[in-house]
Amino acid sequence: MSSPQMNNLIVAGCVLCYLSVVFLGTDASLLRGESRALTYICSTRAWILSVGFTLSFGAMFSKTWRVHCIFTNISMSK
């Protein structure tokens, strides 16, 4: 009942969220005046954080919903 596929999605989402921290720490002084690269990094960090959060939260919600459906199943005989 551990759902290894969902656990893998949670880990992938967390890795993406942690990766976005690297992009959040990047500023113009590190890129030495390349404004085009900075615009790509700014849009990339927003997407990586959003996708990572969606993956991890969606997988956790799916696991919770699955357990809820199992325990509220009225037709289940014990």
Automatic annotation (TrEMBL):
<feature type="transmembrane region" description="Helical">
    <location>
        <begin position="38"/>
        <end position="61"/>
    </location>
</feature>
<feature type="domain" description="G-protein coupled receptors family 3 profile">
    <location>
        <begin position="39"/>
        <end position="78"/>
    </location>
</feature>
<protein>
    <submittedName>
        <fullName>G_PROTEIN_RECEP_F3_4 domain-containing protein</fullName>
    </submittedName>
</protein>
<keyword id="KW-0297">G-protein coupled receptor</keyword>
<dbReference type="GO" id="GO:0038039">
    <property type="term" value="C:G protein-coupled receptor heterodimeric complex"/>
</dbReference>
<dbReference type="Pfam" id="PF00003">
    <property type="entry name" value="7tm_3"/>
</dbReference>
<keyword id="KW-0472">Membrane</keyword>
<dbReference type="InterPro" id="IPR002455">
    <property type="entry name" value="GPCR3_GABA-B"/>
</dbReference>
<keyword id="KW-0675">Receptor</keyword>
<dbReference type="InterPro" id="IPR017978">
    <property type="entry name" value="GPCR_3_C"/>
</dbReference>
<dbReference type="GO" id="GO:0007214">
    <property type="term" value="P:gamma-aminobutyric acid signaling pathway"/>
</dbReference>
<keyword id="KW-1133">Transmembrane helix</keyword>
<dbReference type="GO" id="GO:0004965">
    <property type="term" value="F:G protein-coupled GABA receptor activity"/>
</dbReference>
<keyword id="KW-0325">Glycoprotein</keyword>
<keyword id="KW-0807">Transducer</keyword>
<keyword id="KW-0812">Transmembrane</keyword>
